[in-house]
Automatic annotation (TrEMBL):
Transferase recorded as keyword: yes
Catalytic activity: 1D-myo-inositol 1,3,4,5,6-pentakisphosphate + ATP = 1D-myo-inositol hexakisphosphate + ADP + H(+)
PANTHER family associated with the record: INOSITOL POLYPHOSPHATE KINASE 1, INOSITOL-PENTAKISPHOSPHATE 2-KINASE
MF terms in GO: ATP binding; inositol-1,3,4,5,6-pentakisphosphate 2-kinase activity
Originating organism: Spizellomyces punctatus (strain DAOM BR117)
Protein name, as recorded: Inositol-pentakisphosphate 2-kinase
Keywords of the record: ATP-binding, Kinase, Nucleotide-binding, Transferase
Length: 470
């Protein structure tokens, strides 16, 4: 494990500014002047309930386990070129308490019922994929050497980096023969599209999204473009937009051009469209993202392993899980055990009869447990996020090539209306392990979603092309 046991120069709360947070972690951006830490974020664990106590049986694994899971397990399924590296550093209660105090006025009120877990011995350093460190360093040097122009709008002050974070969700329709015949709608309508209707039933003000993940994964440029425009219209929590590292607030269900004037500024830098309407910037972004998604292999890797790790659907997995001894239900695999599970899986999918899953009724107890673990691994890949970062390529690009094969996680791309090239990189994040004990809740949600959808007079074949926006 690559762990820096001590980086005391980073244990100063004034070096970190609030960026975002989720249920388990707070993410902070480095705001210091040391160039070797430019473009770094610090991810710090939160308490896991309102009482400020981390439950031992909670959903969250230790950072050490998460680090090893990404490095040694996920990297066997997804080219390591796409995986953002994590470095653990020692932190102290004194630092975490001071950090928590400094964040009290900037955190959203809806998140403040969980504080930083000041008992944690580690925090994680990771790359901030919403910026390009070299550009940030160059900007700082330019401002210091030209103080008289600092703050004046020029080509230097226009946005330099656009980053889009997408949760692609499930990329397949199940083929499991053990799905309840009454739930045969699963074979034609994808989980995400059905889930939208369930959310609408539960939440009065829910705006239903027309996004279909199967469009995004399709490799058909028209379908991919449709999926991206759907996400931009109703992003929910499945799309986030960043400009030079700062999040851009997106509306839900409103006209696209009302939220994206910043994109016009970015593409003005590229193509010189000083009078272009805001929506032109959206069109440029969608065109670029479509080209990258269609040509890159990351989403296809995700789709392949999501589906092959989930051969029997939750309707086949839950009955097996339900029969396990309690100790087994509570046992999450160690990294060594995960390694063996993945090796067994890789041998299976490389065999000549990989297309033919074992008869569900004939699986031994050992095989049943193995397929339960495979399903849990699939859940990680269904819940990940993908970040695509775009920035103009300079005549002498100081960023340097990312050490990957061409077409694997990075490259250059050109807009039809410009001779300028843009650089891009694509990374996968949020690839944390899932608990075996979540299977009952997965099953309950699945049944609620499907049963509700069956009550609606809705017929949608997600394997076909979705409605296309103009």
């Amino acid at each position: 494990m690559d762990i820096s046991t001590s980086l005391p120069e980073l244990l100063d709360p004034s070096l970190w500014v609030y960026k975002s947070e989720g249920n388990a972690n707070i993410v902070l951006s480095y705001a210091g002047s040391d160039p070797k830490y430019a473009g770094i974020v610090l991810r710090v664990r939160k308490t896991q309930n309102e009482r400020g106590i981390v439950s031992e049986d909670g959903d969250i694994f230790s950072l050490e386990h998460e680090h090893d899971f990404q490095r040694h397990i996920i990297s066997k399924l997804i080219n390591s070129c796409y995986i953002s590296q994590m470095q653990l550093i020692r932190v102290t209660p004194t630092f975490l308490i001071a950090l928590s105090n400094s964040l009290s006025t900037v955190r959203p009120p809806s998140r403040q019922h969980k504080d930083l877990d000041t008992s944690q011995p580690w925090a994680a350093l990771m790359s901030d994929h919403t910026i390009v460190p070299e550009l940030q360093i160059n900007d700082r040097a330019h401002a210091e050497s030209n103080p008289e122009t600092h703050g004046l709008e020029s080509s230097e002050s226009l946005p330099k980096v656009i980053a889009v974070e997408i949760k692609p969700k499930w990329g397949f329709l199940p083929v499991s023969p053990v799905i309840n015949p009454a739930h045969s709608v699963k074979y034609t309508t994808c989980r995400y599209c059905m889930h939208q209707h369930w959310k609408g039933r539960k939440h009065e003000h829910h705006i239903q999204s027309s996004f279909c993940p199967l469009d995004l994964y399709s490799k058909d440029p028209q379908r991919v473009r449709t999926s991206l425009k759907s996400l931009l219209r109703s992003p929910q929590n499945n799309l986030k937009l960043f400009v030079d590292g700062m999040p851009i607030m997106l509306g839900q269900g409103q006209s696209i051009d009302k939220s994206f004037s910043v994109l016009e500024s970015f593409f003005r830098r590229i193509v010189g469209e000083s009078e272009a309407p805001n929506v032109a910037g959206v069109d440029h972004l969608v065109d670029l993202l479509t080209t990258i998604i269609v040509s890159d292999s990351l989403l296809q890797m995700l789709k392949y392993h999501q589906q092959n790790l989930d051969q029997y659907d939750i309707e086949g997995i839950f009955p097996w899980y339900d029969k396990l001894e309690l100790d087994t239900k509570l046992h999450d695999p160690s990294i060594a055990e995960w390694n063996e599970i993945v090796q067994t899986y890789l041998r299976r999918i490389s065999s000549p009869d990989a297309e033919m899953p074992r008869d569900w009724a004939e699986c031994s107890l050992t095989e049943q447990l193995h397929y339960i673990y495979e399903f849990v691994l699939s859940a990680t890949l269904k819940d990940c996020s993908v970040i695509i970062t775009l920035w103009p390529e300079a005549e002498e690009d100081s960023y340097g090539r990312i050490r990957c094969d061409p077409g694997e996680g990075e490259g250059t791309i050109q807009l039809p209306s410009s001779t300028r090239l843009l650089r891009y990189k694509i990374r996968i994040v949020d690839i944390d392990p899932k608990r075996l004990g979540k299977i009952p809740s997965y099953f309950a949600l699945d049944q609620n979603i499907v049963r509700h959808f069956r009550t609606l007079n809705v017929h949608k074949d997600c394997s076909l092309q979705s409605f296309t926006f103009p």
